Amino acid sequence: MTSTSHDRDLRAQLETLTTEAFRPELADVDRLPTLDIARLMNGEDASVAGAVAEQVPVIAAAIDAVAERMARGGRLVYAGAGTAGRLGVLDASECPPTFNTDPARVVGLIAGGPDALVTSVEGAEDSRELAEADLAALGLTADDTVVGVSASGRTPYAVGAVAYARARGALTVGLACNRGSALAAAAEHGIEVVVGPEFLTGSTRLKAGTAQKLVLNMLSTITMIRLGKTYGNLMVDVRASNEKLRARSRRIVAQATGAADDDVERALTATDGEVKHAILVILADVDGPTAARLLAESDGHLRAALARAGDGA
Question: pTM of the entire structure?
Fold first, then answer.
């Protein structure tokens, strides 16, 4: 195929995508007062959560499948290009400080590698082979999950990642912002959040990016809830790596137990700052090593460990 005919085919594809559609009513937006433009953008953004809501049952089914595999030791891998890839890397990078996960358990792959986080890597998103190479380096297993992320739903890097992962028995999820996407079709769990045409024509860092961020938040957060990384809505697996997080750790233990500050400090000292262990020390009236044993026997689930302690385990 010549480059001219390839360009024509690509243009024809883009013209069918909702995310690329032109909004004639916004053709003079650059002539409006700043306040009016900001109000228009805000109104557009307000529609995103509703679009995500339509896909919540599909998202929930994907989360249950992801959590089942991660409970067996599998990994959650995001793969995307441009904004989609950056959002995946962002979500993955925030799991260790939030949930004390091993950085290798939630991984963000972006077409073009780390340089693509801050600059455009020409042609990277068009390469299925690049996605296959990036995933081959991880040595995928059937317990792993690969989530391809692409606003258009046609990006070769994301589609290639999902196709490669599925062929190797991994769980696959496709997150797109157009109906009938190749990405959703390639995955076992297809999530299509249709946010409509963008405020700036084709600028999918806007509504589509916001939608992807919301869905990725749900995928990782609810998966971690299912894995016992929280107690109620408290981040009991938070890693206290700086003074703010150390203060948060003390606050979480106090909120979970109602204990006095001195008791909170003693429990955290007895458990080397491990929030979940400290809560168990206070609520079950056990020592640090016993708390560690109970949690290990309960696969890290604090409620289960409390039940075991109550049963005299």
Answer: 0.90
